[in-house]
Design brief:
Chains A, B: This is TIR domain-containing protein. The structure is a homodimer. The first copy, chain A, has a five-stranded mixed β-sheet. Chain A starts with a helix and ends with a helix. In chain A, a hairpin with a 2-residue loop joins strand 2 and strand 3. Chain A has about 180 residues and is an alpha/beta fold. Chain A contains six helices and five strands, in the order ααβαβββααβα. Chains A and B meet through helix 1, strand 2, strand 3, strand 4 and helix 4 of A and helix 1, strand 2, strand 3, strand 4 and helix 4 of B. The structure holds cGAMP (1SY).
């Protein structure tokens, strides 16, 4: 199943690389020194539609990307491949003086699922896409519960009902 | 199947992003101006064992990584994510004055397959790993043959019999 493959790939090709050293990199960054409350876990948002907006800024006027924590490592012949973990600032809409910081993204493997359903080659239906997204999430939770993944604890999988952005045909299909 | 998922992810999450503009970026780079013969297609090497060395330099004294062609784009909430395409110089062992350049890597999704077979969580056997590698290659060829992938022609999938690096236990398993 595609969703399972994406979960294994996300774990071994990304989470296993960025999570073990993340908290330390964050603590050594300028963002941690700012004194702003900072949730130092990597948040991977799982939009229900698998639509992964390219950036947070356009999606929510209260969220602004202010930079990234990064490191480089040679992987698979790609010398000093760069891994960036974006840092975002959230402003409390009821009190513009209250801000806090978080790390995260829209869970990138879902972007491939969305493309498979809309890209015209894979022939994946929206139901198939949603099913594979569920398989991805279940498999990733299972992997992260394994003792070998103990160094990947600074991570949150966050499902997000972005149903409002669905076109009327998608809403119709759901019914 | 895992291999199929990795092929779709490699296509939509990487090849579709880097291949369409690759030749132009290469032609505008310092490497193209050097006058050295330059094969301007992206080469993804598929080691038979799925072992993906971190860099070419250690693998072959005649190959040296001399830089990269890169660009940045906001993907999935990761602002200005960096995509590097490594440039390698090959020296002809029979004539040290003859060099040529190529772009490429050890096909990164295979690295996840290798980790799945050796990482102790997935329980994937070496036969399973080799089978998924074959499925990956077949699916990727199929995707790249589709009319929608016409802008991804500057690409070569290169299987490589790296069997010599197998431990005696792997060779034994194969028999
Ligand atoms: N947000 C985010 N930032 C990253 O830097 C990153 N790097 C990987 N991933 C995701 O982890 C998983 C495993 O990565 P892997 O490198 O094995 O496969 C990658 C890899 O084979 C190739 N690829 C993507 N970006 C690059 C890159 N910059 N250099 C080389 N290869 C790349 O295409 C596959 C799919 O990439 P994404 O679809 O971006 O999602 C990947 C994937 O789900 C990332 N996700």
């Amino acid at each position: 199943d595609i969703g399972h493959g994406l979960a294994w790939s996300y774990y071994y090709g990304y989470l296993k690389l960025i999570l073990p050293g993340l908290r330390q990199r964050v603590n050594e960054s300028e963002f941690a020194k700012s004194g702003t409350p900072f949730l130092k876990k990597f948040i991977a948002i799982l939009p229900e539609t698998s639509i992964c907006p390219s950036s947070f800024d356009k999606e929510d006027e209260n969220v602004k990307t202010i930079g990234a924590v990064e490191f480089s490592v040679s992987i698979s012949g790609n010398v000093m491949r760069n891994y960036k973990t974006a840092v975002h600032q959230v402003t409390d809409p009821r009190d513009k003086n209250k801000t806090y910081l978080f790390l995260g993204e829209f869970c990138t493997p879902l972007r491939s699922l969305y493309e498979m359903a809309s890209g015209g080659i894979a022939g994946l239906s929206n139901e198939g896409r949603n099913h594979q997204s569920l398989l991805f999430r279940e498999k990733l939770k299972e992997i992260l519960g394994h003792p070998n993944a103990a160094d990947c604890k600074d991570f949150v999988l966050l499902p997000y009902r972005d149903v409002a952005v669905q076109s009327s045909s998608e809403v119709h299909e759901k019914e």
